[in-house]
Every structure is written in structure tokens, then in C-alpha cells.
């Protein structure tokens, strides 16, 4: 349907009648052709499929194979296989529970649709479920109505529609039934169209349905949500790489050790047991679970910071964000028009402050308040706004100065009016007062000033209007005229002339108080904020400069300018553009993709339906919890419950801290696993030396116990570490940065070799007396060395600093780990199950002493590092 067509042409093309509507037969035929006015649902994976997908991780596959082969080769040793199966099932169940927080964007979109619609069918007015609307239906619109579908305005009687949820435009749009001059018009400028899920704020009108369901603008957004796949986050990619690498290395090492054992003369069964033990040692069974739980703990922390995370990996992703694309209305601003400036000929431009306003300003606001229909009603300790946001801003200003409409009505009795229309851009109201008849005219300054009697300050008033307009203020003028009686001819040319100018009022949707500081903090942390809005360029530019988003050398562009740019041109200029105004939903997605193509991790904030595709396309979408639509919340990875832009900065800090903690956990777990592998591999190598058949130093059940208990508890506690004090002084990580960057890989390797060497020494010393004693000493040294090692990785600082007691959870994990170790060693049935031997004091002291060595070595390296930094 073309916006350049007249209403009558559209009516004829759709085969309907404005006064009679569609016939029941036409409705039936069109419903069969177009379907119902509803949105399609996304087909979701079944619970069974989600469960089965949990077993596609390479580490899990290796563990399952090891368990199956072990039970086939030696059914008598079933306990190790059972423990492996329990571990795998636990991880799978946990994964399904997390993924069960499914996407609900489309359901939310359906809820937003108007439940009922007032239509004319068969010449009669009817109220029907909006689902039953079809193309060509004639819909009646009144103030307060949700628009049930897209349609062409056929009649407009001062009709205004709030389209902020769809276009981002903060001011209601005046609608007309007239044809527009062109067809290729941005969504926010289609003045003769109404769109589904927007709201009538003023006036009344009639529209003819032109699109329903998935064909209307909200439906197109729903389609974009259905078709936009969600890429995995950087953390997921890095952990997947780690899993694949460990899995491949595990298979290679197992094959090598199996061959070595066979070569040394060991039987195939014993050789296989050694290989299975090595597989169990090599695979950090707790890694996926620990990372998931650390992220979940991060979610709990972020709830306290007013951020609800809907998808666990998003916690880490926000910490690596380098670009925040933010909607303006309701996110950076308050989504509430507010009087900020006044102009009076005698006083000039003044900042408006209700508590200090003089009688002249009070009188100015009185005239404005008497010439409008909006109302402000006190309700539960707050002010409830009814009507057009511009008008309610004026009423609120008077209210705060002690003048309410009910009080004014006692003195000023409203008698006649000339309603506002978009062609005159004015409104006039007549009042009966003690001094006679008074008319008050309110409207655009250029129009109202042109209707005023010549006065000395006219040039100054015009200049004041231009000054306030340059500051992106919405400016209105008010003028009055005295009459002996209400004129019989209420024509505009007769009434709205020879006026006496009173003054101007400037309003704006002001920035949130905390946003400027939040943007500055983000910049300090290497994060750039980009404004994306459906508002006009002038307004967006003024707000962006005020907040520090638009800096010298950067520019603002409009949606049509963006449409004219190719993807290559956009990518070439993306770093110079800080503000995008008058944009459509597909523009937002293009902007996000362009930054992502530059290698940035992009966060997108928003609250409206129009933000949903970009929230989905971004690395992390942040929806507003109070003003945000359900659609935006459904598409987002995180919801800010206080609608506070500053919450993003708190979330970034937590995200960076959580990523640090995950790196610490990986350091802890992998260095421990390397120690385990080296213990078994080293024993196998030594066994090749004639006369040095050491046997297997650790059984699979020992390694599973250490990996699940001794390792996992401290790993969870390390995940509770608070972020380092200087964490927001760092620049964001590159999306392509290796997880093992900054020497992490080397650190894991040498610390693992150290733990493995010490464990092997402990085994050899005990094995001279008896194999069970050597195995028990190796078990004690390996378990305790990892418990001690957890304190090494908790911080870059010395464990002997005051920070040693900063993490009570780590001390708890250490105490529990030691206690469980003692139970395994000294409770008879557990000692028997784990093949433990009773250690005399000398053996125990050697095993514990060797376990403490990593603390001393790591402390020496930390000291050397600190000295090199001075």
C-alpha cells in the first residue's frame, strides 16, 4: 500500500466501504486468504533433543567411551564406570535446566497485540477479537486504544498516536488522512499510517486495515527474530576450543601410554586400566560444571546490581563489550517531556524551576495550562499523566507551582474552543472571566508570532525560539486576546489574529541524571557508547553532546543517509559515527553487525519493540525492565530492573571479574589435571627402565574423587572472588584474544609439571615400602597440593597479604576438602573402596610436605614478578 495514494484510492483498492465496512462473506473469504491477525510461533527443540545435545561435547564423548569400554573389558570394576556416568548425567541435566529459560519474544509480541478491536461490518459497529481482523476491515480509533493491526488512516480528528515502542519517537505523531508526497518514507514519518501495538493518545479517527499478522510492521520484527540465529558467545567458543584440544590430546596420550605398557610386558587388561586412568586424569570433568556454576553465582551478584541475566554466558560477554549501542528514548532519557526553559519579553530566556519561579512565569504557565486538554492526577503519592506528553509536561509545571486545573476552573470557565489540527498547528480556547471573555492561543512559535500584533520584542522572541530549538527543545508559544463577547464566527482567520504575545516554553525529554557519569566511566574502561534512536537528528545530536556521546570529529547521521550507504561504506565510516537518528529496525541490526565485523563485542540496550532484532543480533542485548516492552525483554540476554544506564557499568565490572575468575579456575583445574596426567605418564615411562616397574600410581576412582571433590569445591570458591580493584582501568579484551593470553598457558604448564613431579616423587618414596603405601602417599600429595594450590591462583597478590582471608568460601572449601580426605583414608569401608593403606607419621609428613611445596614456589615467582614491575 502506497503512502502517496489518497484514502479513497486505498479503500477502493482494498474493496471495502468506509461507512459500511466489509460484509460477513468478504470477511470469510479474506480470512481464508490471509489467515488470522496473529504471529507465528518459533518451533522449539523438544526437551529430549535438548537433553541429547548435552552429550555432543568432545570431553563428554571421551568420558562415555572410556566408561563403556571399561565395563566391557572388566565388568567387575563397575564402580569407576558408574561414577563417570553419574558425572555425565549431572552435567547434562544441569545444561537442560539452564536452557529451559527459552526465548519468549514471540509470545510477548502476541500479548502486546490489542485483544479487541472496534470495527464496522455490514454497516454496524462491532467489537471483535483483534485476531479476527482481516485486510479491508474498517477500524474505529479513540484515545487510549491499542492499534490492532497496520492500517491506512481514512479519517483523522486531531488523531495522535504514540509510536515510541515501534519507532523510538518520544513525541506522539499527528496523523492525517491526506496522501503524502512520496512512497519511500521512513516509518516514523508515515503520517497517514497507523501501526500495530502503538497507542492512540489523543483525538479519534478511522483506519482501513492494510496488513495483519506477520505482514504488519510488528510481524516483520517477529520474522526478523525468528530468522536471526544467536551466535555462541566468546566464552563458549573458547571453552569449546579447550575441550577439543584436551579431547584430542587425551586420545593421543592414552594410545601412547597403552602402547608403552604393552611394550613393557604388562597384560592388556592392566594396560587398558592405565589408559582409562589416564583418560580420567586428563579430562577436567568438573570444568563445564564449575564454569556454569561460576556464571550462575555471577548472575546472583548481578541481581544485587539490578541486572537480571536470562542467559548464563551473557555474564562474561558483557565484561568483554567494547561498544554499547543505546536507544535514546527511555534509556538515555527519562521518556517524559519536561519544561526546562521559559521566555518572557521582559525577562528573556530563563531556566525553569518551579520552586523559585516568579509571578510572571507562573502566569505564563497558567495560560499554557488553560489552553490544553492534558491532565495530571495525584495517585498513590505519584503524578499520573493523562493525555499528550507535551501537554502533561505543561500541566505538571503549573501543578508544581501550586496551580491545578480544578482550581483554575473555579475562576476560568471554558466555553468555546478551536481544536488543534496539523494544518494550523494551533489551538484556541475561550474562557469567561470576571474581566470578560478571554481567548488563549497555543501553538508553534513561528505560527503564533505571525498572528500577534506587532510589538517591539518580536525579533527577540523569534531569536529566542531559534536558540531553544537549536538546543533540541520542543518550543510552544502562547498568546491571548480580550473580547467583549464570544464571536459568532469561530473561523481561525477571525479568531486567531491580532493576538497579544505572552511568552515561550521549551520542553525536552531530559537525560537521566546518572547517565552522563555512566558514559564517562564506560569511556574510561575503553567502552564507547553509540546512540541509536528513532527521534530527529537535531534532538538526538543535542542530547548526545550533552551526555558526552558525540565528541569533536564525530558525526550524526539519519536513517535515510544510512539506507543510502552500502555495508562496505558503513563499515569504513562506522568509527566516525556516534549518533544514528530516524532509524528503522533493520538499520539497528546493520549498525550492530558493522561493529561486530570490526572485531568488537557489541552490547545493545533498548526498551521498545523496534529494538528487539538488534538486541537479538548483538553479542549481548540489555533490555529495560520498567519501561521495556515484553518483546524487548524476551529478545534480550539481560534485563536492567532499574532502567539505569549506570547498571550496565556495574554489570561490565562484574562480567570482567567473572571472566578473571573463570581464567583462575581453568588455571587451577588444568594445572591439576596436568599434574595427574604427568604422574601416570611419568610412572609408565620409568617402568620402561629395566627393574623399575612402578605399576599404576593412581586408580581411576582416586582421580575421579580428586577431580570431583578436591578440585571442584575450591574451584567454586575461586569463582566467588571479588573483582580486582583496578579491573575497570583495563581496556576490553579483544574478541579474538586467546583464552590463554598473557602467559596463562605457560603458567598452567609449569605449575602442572610441578604438581605432577611432586606427586610422582611421593609415590616412588612410598612404593619402596609397598605399592599401597606409595599409591596412598601419591593420593595424599596430589589432593593436598591442589587444595594448597587453590590459594595460589585466587589472586595475583601474595597469599600472605591481608587478602588471604578475603574469601571465606575458599577457606570453607579447603576445610571440607581436608576433612573428606581424612574420611577416605581412615574410615574403614571407604579406605577399602579406595585401596588406602595406613600411613605412619613419617610417610604422612613426607606426603604433606611435598604437597605444600607449590605454595613456596609460586610465592617466589609472584615476588620476582612484583620486583620486575618496579
TrEMBL record:
| Main EC class the enzyme belongs to | translocase
Alphabetized Pfam families for the sequence: Cation_ATPase (PF13246), Cation_ATPase_C (PF00689), Cation_ATPase_N (PF00690), E1-E2_ATPase (PF00122)
The record ties this protein, via SUPFAM superfamilies, to: Calcium ATPase, transduction domain A (SSF81653), Calcium ATPase, transmembrane domain M (SSF81665), HAD-like (SSF56784), Metal cation-transporting ATPase, ATP-binding domain N (SSF81660)
Q: Which reaction does it catalyse?
A: Ca(2+)(in) + ATP + H2O = Ca(2+)(out) + ADP + phosphate + H(+)
* EC number(s) per entry: 7.2.2.10
- Any Gene Ontology biological process: export from cell
Query: What name does the UniProt record give this protein?
Result: P-type Ca(2+) transporter
Amino acid at each position: 500500500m502506497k503512502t502517496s495514494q489518497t484514502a479513497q484510492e486505498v479503500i477502493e483498492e482494498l474493496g471495502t466501504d468506509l461507512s459500511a465496512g466489509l460484509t460477513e462473506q468478504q470477511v470469510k473469504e479474506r480470512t481464508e486468504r490471509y489467515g488470522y491477525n496473529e504471529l507465528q510461533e518459533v518451533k522449539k527443540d523438544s526437551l529430549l533433543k535438548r537433553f541429547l545435545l548435552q552429550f555432543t561435547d568432545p570431553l563428554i564423548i571421551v568420558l562415555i567411551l572410556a566408561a563403556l569400554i571399561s565395563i566391557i573389558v572388566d565388568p567387575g570394576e563397575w564402580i569407576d564406570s558408574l561414577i563417570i556416568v553419574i558425572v555425565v548425567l549431572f552435567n547434562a541435566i544441569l545444561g537442560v535446566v539452564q536452557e529451559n529459560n527459552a526465548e519468549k519474544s514471540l509470545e510477548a509480541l502476541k500479548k502486546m497485540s490489542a485483544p479487541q478491536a472496534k470495527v464496522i461490518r455490514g454497516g454496524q459497529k462491532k467489537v471483535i477479537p483483534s485476531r479476527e481482523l482481516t485486510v479491508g476491515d474498517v477500524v474505529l480509533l479513540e484515545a487510549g486504544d491499542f492499534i490492532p493491526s497496520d492500517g491506512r488512516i481514512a479519517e483523522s480528528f486531531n488523531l495522535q498516536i504514540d509510536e515510541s515502542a515501534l519507532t523510538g519517537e518520544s513525541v506522539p505523531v499527528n496523523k492525517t488522512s491526506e496522501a503524502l508526497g512520496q512512497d519511500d518514507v521512513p516509518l516514523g514519518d508515515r503520517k497517514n499510517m497507523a501501526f500495530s501495538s502503538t497507542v492512540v493518545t489523543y483525538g479519534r479517527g478511522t483506519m482501513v486495515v492494510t496488513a495483519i499478522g506477520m505482514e504488519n510492521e510488528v510481524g516483520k520484527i517477529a520474522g526478523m527474530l525468528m530468522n536471526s540465529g544467536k551466535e555462541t558467545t566468546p566464552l563458549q567458543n573458547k571453552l569449546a576450543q579447550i575441550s577439543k584440544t584436551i579431547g584430542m590430546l587425551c586420545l593421543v596420550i592414552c594410545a601412547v601410554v597403552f602402547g608403552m605398557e604393552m611394550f613393557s610386558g604388562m597384560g592388556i587388561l592392566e594396560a587398558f586400566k592405565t589408559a582409562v586412568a589416564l583418560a580420567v586424569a586428563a579430562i577436567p570433568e568438573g570444568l563445564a560444571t564449575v564454569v556454569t556454576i561460576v556464571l550462575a553465582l555471577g548472575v546472583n551478584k548481578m541481581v544485587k546490581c539490578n541486572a537480571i541475566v536470562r542467559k548464563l554466558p551473557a555474564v562474561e560477554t558483557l565484561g568483554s563489550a567494547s561498544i554499547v549501542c543505546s536507544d535514546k528514548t527511555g534509556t538515555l532519557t527519562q521518556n517524559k517531556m519536561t519544561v526546562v526553559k521559559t521566555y518572557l519579553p521582559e525577562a528573556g530566556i530563563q531556566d525553569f524551576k518551579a520552586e523559585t519561579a516568579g509571578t510572571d512565569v507562573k502566569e505564563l504557565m497558567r495560560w499554557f495550562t488553560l489552553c490544553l486538554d492534558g491532565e495530571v492526577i495525584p495517585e498513590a503519592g505519584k503524578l499520573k499523566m493523562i493525555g499528550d506528553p507535551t501537554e502533561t509536561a505543561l500541566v505538571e509545571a503549573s501543578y508544581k507551582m501550586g496551580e491545578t486545573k480544578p482550581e483554575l476552573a473555579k475562576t476560568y470557565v471554558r466555553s468555546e474552543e478551536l481544536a488543534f489540527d496539523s494544518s494550523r498547528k494551533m489551538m484556541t480556547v475561550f474562557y469567561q472571566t470576571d474581566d470578560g471573555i478571554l481567548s488563549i492561543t497555543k501553538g508553534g512559535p513561528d505560527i503564533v508570532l505571525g498572528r500577534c500584533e506587532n510589538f517591539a520584542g518580536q525579533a527577540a522572541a523569534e531569536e529566542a525560539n531559534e536558540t531553544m530549538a537549536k538546543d533540541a527543545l520542543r518550543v510552544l508559544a502562547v498568546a491571548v486576546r480580550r473580547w467583549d463577547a464570544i464571536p459568532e464566527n469561530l473561523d481561525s482567520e477571525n479568531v486567531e489574529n491580532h493576538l497579544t504575545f505572552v511568552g515561550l516554553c521549551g520542553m525536552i525529554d531530559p537525560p537521566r541524571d546518572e547517565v552522563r557519569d555512566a558514559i564517562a566511566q564506560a569511556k574510561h574502561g575503553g567502552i564507547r557508547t553509540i546512540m541509536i534512536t528513532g527521534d530527529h537528528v537535531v534532538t538526538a545530536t543535542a542530547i548526545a553532546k550533552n551526555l558526552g556521546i558525540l565528541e569533536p570529529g564525530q558525526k550524526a547521521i539519519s536513517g535515510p543517509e544510512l539506507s543510502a550507504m552500502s555495508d562496505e561504506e558503513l563499515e569504513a565510516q562506522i568509527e566516525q559515527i556516534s549518533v544514528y537518528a530516524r532509524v528503522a529496525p533493520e538499520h539497528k541490526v546493520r549498525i550492530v553487525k558493522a561493529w561486530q565485523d570490526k572485531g568488537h563485542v557489541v552490547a545493545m540496550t533498548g526498551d521498545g519493540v523496534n529494538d528487539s532484532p538488534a538486541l537479538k543480533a548483538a553479542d549481548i542485548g540489555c533490555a529495560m525492565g520498567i519501561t521495556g516492552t515484553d518483546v524487548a525483554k524476551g529478545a534480550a540476554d539481560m534485563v536492567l530492573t532499574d532502567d539505569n544506564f549506570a547498571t550496565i557499568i556495574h554489570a561490565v565490572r562484574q562480567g570482567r571479574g567473572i571472566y578473571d575468575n573463570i581464567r583462575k579456575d581453568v588455571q587451577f583445574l588444568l594445572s591439576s589435571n596436568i599434574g595427574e596426567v604427568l604422574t601416570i605418564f611419568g610412572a609408565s615411562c620409568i617402568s620402561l627402565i629395566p627393574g623399575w616397574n612402578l605399576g599404576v600410581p593412581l586408580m581411576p576412582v582416586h582421580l575421579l574423587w580428586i577431580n570431583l571433590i578436591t578440585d571442584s569445591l575450591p574451584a567454586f570458591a575461586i569463582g566467588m572472588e571479588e573483582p580486582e580493584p583496578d579491573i575497570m582501568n583495563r581496556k576490553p579484551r579483544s574478541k579474538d584474544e586467546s583464552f590463554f593470553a598473557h602467559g596463562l598457558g605457560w603458567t598452567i604448564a609449569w605449575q602442572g609439571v610441578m604438581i605432577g613431579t611432586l606427586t610422582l616423587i611421593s609415590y616412588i618414596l612410598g612404593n619402596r615400602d609397598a605399592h599401597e603405601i606409595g599409591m596412598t602417599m601419591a593420593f595424599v600429595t596430589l589432593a593436598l597440593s591442589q587444595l594448597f594450590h587453590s590459594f595460589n591462583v585466587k589472586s595475583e597478590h601474595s597469599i600472605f597479604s591481608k587478602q588471604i582471608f578475603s574469601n571465606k568460601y575458599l577457606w570453607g572449601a579447603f576445610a571440607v576438602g581436608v576433612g573428606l580426605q581424612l574420611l577416605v583414608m581412615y574410615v574403614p569401608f571407604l579406605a577399602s573402596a579406595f585401596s588406602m593403606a595406613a600411613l605412619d607419621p613419617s610417610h604422612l609428613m613426607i606426603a604433606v610436605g611435598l604437597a605444600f611445596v607449590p605454595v613456596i614456589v609460586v610465592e617466589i615467582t609472584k615476588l620476582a614478578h612484583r620486583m620486575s614491575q618496579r
